[in-house]
Amino acid sequence: MNQPVVSSDGKDVPKLTPEEMEKARKAFLLLRFLKSARGYWGPSGEKVAWLCTLALLLLIVANLAFQYGFNVWNRRLFDAIEQRNSSTVLFLAEVFPILVIGSVGLVTAQVYARMLIQRRWRSWLTKELIARWLAHGRYYQLNLIDGDHKNPEARISEDLRIATEAPVDFVSGVLVAFLSASTFIVVLWSIGGALTLPFGGSTIVIPGFLVIAAVLYAVITSTSIAVIGRNFVQVSEVKNQTEAEFRYTLTRVRENGESIALLGGEQEERSELDRTFGNVRRQWRLLSHQYMRTTLVSHTSMLVAGVVPVLLCAPKFLAGEMTLGEVMQAASAFTIVQGAFGWLVDNYPRLADWNACARRVASLMTSLDELERAEENDTIGRIQRGEVKQGSILSLHDLSVTLGDGRAVVKETQVEIEPGERVLVAGESGSGKSTLVRAISGLWPWGDGTVSFREGSRLFMLPQRPYIPSGTLRRAIAYPRGGDWWTASDLATALEKVGLGQLKEKIDQEAPWDHILSGGEKQRVSFARLLLHDADIVVLDEATSALDEKTQDAMMEMLLRELPSATILSVGHRAELEEFHSRKITLERQDGGARLVSDVYLAQYGRRKNVISRLLKRSRTASD
What we know:
Strand 11 (537-541), helix 18 and strand 12 (567-571) form a beta-alpha-beta unit. The protein has 19 helices and 14 strands. By secondary structure, the chain is α/β, with parallel strands linked by helices.
C-alpha cells in the first residue's frame, strides 16, 4: 500500500510506486512534446500551416465523396448485370474512368498535402530545437549535467522526423476512418434493414443487423490487437534507444579512427560494437514477435471481412428481399466500415513508434528547459557576466567554478587583467585551469562571482583540439565565419604566417581535412583563424600542446608580432611558455576546490636568458 506524503498545503498526497512514476514521466514527456510541436499552428508558427491543414481536410472530404460514388456505382453495375441490362452496363463502363481519374487525382493531391504539412512541420520544429540547442553553449552544457538526453543528434534527426510524420498520418487517418465509418454505416443501415430470425415458436427482429455485425467485428479485432500489442510502445522505445547507441558507437569509431588504429584497438572496438549491436538484435527480436502477433490478427481480419457481409446478406438475397447489387454494395460498405474501425489495428505499431520517438525528443526538450530555467533562476549558483567601464579589460571577481551538482572546482578567484597583458595560467593537471577558461568564455555556467569584460572587447579562443569543419580548407580557416568572408589572398597570407604555405594552393579543395591534417597542423590552422579575426582578448587553452618546441616559439612570436596590443590568457604546462608572458597565475588543487596560490609578474630579462639557453641547447644537440 502506498504511504501518503504531506504536500506544502498540508494535504496528504499518495506516494507513487516506481511503475506509477514511470507512467507519469512518460505522460509528461508526451505532453511536453505536444506543447512545443503545436506551436507550428500558433502565432510563432508558419502562416501557411492552417491553409495547408484546411486544404488537406477538403481533399479528404472530396475523396470520401468519390469513394461513396464508387459504392453506388458498384450497386448499379451488379443490378444491371443481374437484369442483363446492356445499355446501363455500357453507361457505367463509360463513367468508370471518370471516377478513377477523379479519385486518383484527389488521392495524389491528398498525399502531397499531407507530406507538405509533415515536411514543413518537421522543418519548423527542427529549426526551433536546433536554435535552443546551440544557444548559449547548451549543446556543450548538456554533456555536463545528468538527464535522459544522450545522442541529441539522433533525437533531432531521426526521432524528430518520426515524431512529426506519424501525427499527421494519425490525425488524417482517424479523420478518414471517422468520416468513412459514419457515411457507410448509414449505407449499411439503409440497405440491410432489419433481419428477422425464427426463434422457437416466434421470431426475433434485429434492426440494422449489418451495422451491429460490423461494430462487433471491429470490437473483436481491435480488442485482440490491443491485448496482443500492449507492450508495443515499451519495446519500440527501447529499440530506438539501442539503435541510437549503436549509431553513436559507430560515429565514435569513425571520429577517432587514427587513435584507434595507432593503438591497435580494433579488437576492443569490435567487442563494444558487438555488444551494442547485440542489444539492437535482441530488441528487434522482441519487436518482430510483436509484429507477428499483430499481423496474425490484422491479416485474419482482412481475409474474413470480405466474406462476412456476403454470408449475412445471403438469406435476404435468396429470399428475394435484396438484389445482387445491394448485396455487393453492402459487402463493399461493410469492408470500408471494417477498415475504418480497424484503422488502429493496422497503425498501432507505428503509433507505438511515434510515442517512443516523441518522448525521446521531449527528453531533450526538458533538459534544455532545465538549462533555460537555471539561466533565469537567481537561486541557482551561476557565474554572472558583467562589463568593465575602465581600467582592466578582464576582471574575475570572487569567481568560483562548480560542477552541476555543486562541487567546487575553482574557489574564490580574484584577478584583474590589464589591456595588452600576457597572462599564463599554470598548475598541475586537474587543478581546474581549463575549467577556469571555460568559465571565462561562458561555456561553464555554474558557480559564483562575476566575469567582466571591457565593453566592446572581442574574445577569441584557441582550444587544445581545434575543430575542423567538413568541406573546403577555406571554410576550415575562416571558421566560425563563412568561407567567403575573406579573399583567397587573405587566407593564403594567414597560412604563410603560421607555416602552412604549402596548403595555400588547396584552399578551395574539398577534402576530409579533419583526418588529413595532423594535430600540430590543426593547431596552426587555429592560429591562422586568430590572425584573420583580430581579437582583443585571446585565450589559448593548451593551444600549442601538439607543436614541437621550435614551432611553438614561432607561433608565439608570430602572435606577439601580429597582434601586439592583444590581451593574452594562456593555459599551458610547458615552462618555455613563460618567456612569452608578462605574468603568471598558478592554481593549486586543494580540498574544496583549486585556489589561486600565486600571481607574479615575470622578469623581462628572464625571457632573454631562457632564449639564449635554449639556443645553446639546440646547437649542442645539432653538433652531437
